[in-house]
């Protein structure tokens, strides 16, 4: 055998690991275009966010803030209503806004308090873990941006506020503007909780658990540990860090579904993770009202202009299943903006 042939054979075998590495990535991207391997920029972002501090210092007696995380794949139709929600000068140092917008859609900058609030984003798809990634991206950016962010409220472009900002702020922080300054879970585990829906007895929950195949979720998530809930939540800073730090459950929930009709990863990942890691630190209830009466194709009831009234706002605020008020509501059609603006000052933001 000539030396030339021998060298070629050696080079071929040496190149096999590289060929398999790239071919496997190609196959994943080809079969499931909405699933990709963990990307270095996200992993780096999450690691940095997980390393931030959880507690405020008492040196300057700072007031904690609420980070509002807008998850959207279209224009923020209700930006004028939210603008009024944030508009008071007394509120301007008590909140931050972050927007994850579909980079492939022409999402207009609504200006005002929303101007320059967009974070680096990636495309999202239904029935895929991309919505989980988007929420984690929002949380990570908010964690890094401001250490005073102590609550993180995830909302959509279809959400509206049901009260004034001051009411929402005082409701979350219980009128104590420095309440989280010295907070430590070991001192008072239930003092400040995350508002996230955590359900274990929903219809077809077993089918949802099996959406990726039999035994795929094992051993990390057993069926008795699997939970269902809304994808919208209000998390404390310690839970936001828990979410961006997680890799153990994420490696399961990022797998593609084979039963797409039961695949709602964003409604499963967050309640399951927080239930397994710190159930006592969560209320089990959410602060966003959603009407599932007459739902279709996984979408909740859509409120239209003819539905908007002071009575609707008052009804949406009250919960029949928990001791908590609803602070936000969805899902409203873009055409509902005008009638909502007409009752904003006298009803919504007067908290009556």
TrEMBL record:
Q: Which InterPro entries match?
A: BC10-like, Glyco_trans_14
Membrane association type: Single-pass type II membrane protein
Which superkingdom, per the lineage? Eukaryota
Q: What is its main location?
A: membrane
Key word Signal present: no
GO CC terms in record? membrane
Protein name, UniProt field: Glycosyltransferase
Provide the organism lineage as a comma list. Eukaryota, Viridiplantae, Streptophyta, Embryophyta, Tracheophyta
